[in-house]
Amino acid sequence: MAQPTQSSVSAIRSMTGFARREAALPAGTLVWEVRTVNHRYLEVGLRLPEDFRALESEARALIATQVRRGKLDATLQFRPAAPGKVTLELNEPLLTALTAQARVLADRIGGSVNAMDLLRWPGVVREPERETAPLQLAAMTLLKDALQALGAHRDSEGARTASMIGERSERLLELVAEVAARLPEVRERIRVKLNERLAQFVATDTHRERFEQELVLALQKLDVDEELDRLRSHVTEVQRSLAGNEPAGRRLDFLMQEFNREANTLSSKSQDAATTRAAVEMKVLIEQMREQVQNVE
Predict the structure, then answer these.
(1) 240 and 289 within one domain
(2) Residue 73 near residue 34 (C-beta atoms within 8 A)
(3) What is the pTM for the complete model shown?
(4) pLDDT digits (tens, 9 = 90+) for 206-246
(5) Considering its fold, how many domains does the chain have in total?
(6) Which of 56, 84, 192, 281 has the smallest C-beta neighbourhood within 10 Å, fewest atoms?
(7) In a shared domain, residues 152 and 164
(8) How many of the other CB atoms lie within 10 Å of CB of 36?
């Protein structure tokens, strides 16, 4: 069985990844951090500053075009630039009303109006409103860049996973070939054993019925051709999935279950120590592949 090419191996994508992207703007610095772990479906968690809350729907839609499966957490940080010249705005209507009321109160109880007390009143002093539209556009552009970096990370991890799965599936084929090569010897040994039993069970119908039962049981255990054929077929499907362009995690997970079923059946039918050892090694390989497949998108 030919190994997948490097380009086809990279079609397998890991569900684990991390990316961080930063952009310095005149108004401040934007930072996206995006991380993913394995999950049955796509689950997105977003943390956005107050000025960027309006981006949530658009950000989720963009993420869905780049990530098929996995639990994704994306955090946006915004650090405003230090102002070169401090400018403050006064809420003139509010300040006028407060001043008038303060003077009335001062005349009634005696005293004077403290300007600093008026300025501390909520809403009297405010910073100039920041233009959020350019910042939001820059944040979405930066998110797209972060998702591309995340995809590259996941692709790199996926390529290593695909290589490992490919190597173990090839070893699985070698073990199938070893078991198949031993079948004639195993069958001949059992045939000799059955002939010896037949020599012991001469004459009576009772003995003959018992022998026939043992013969049927032995023949059932000898018939492992179907299991070996299915194992070969499953390896072919694994290699096809590794070489495909679509997310293969769920299909590979199903194939691991089928692998395990056939290896268990082969082990239960084994009439030979070498075959049993091969079946055990198959199970180890299948479990190693299954663990890796859990993280494939």
Answers:
(1) yes
(2) yes
(3) 0.68
(4) 566 666 666 666 655 566 788 999 999 999 999 999 988 88
(5) 3
(6) 84
(7) no
(8) 27
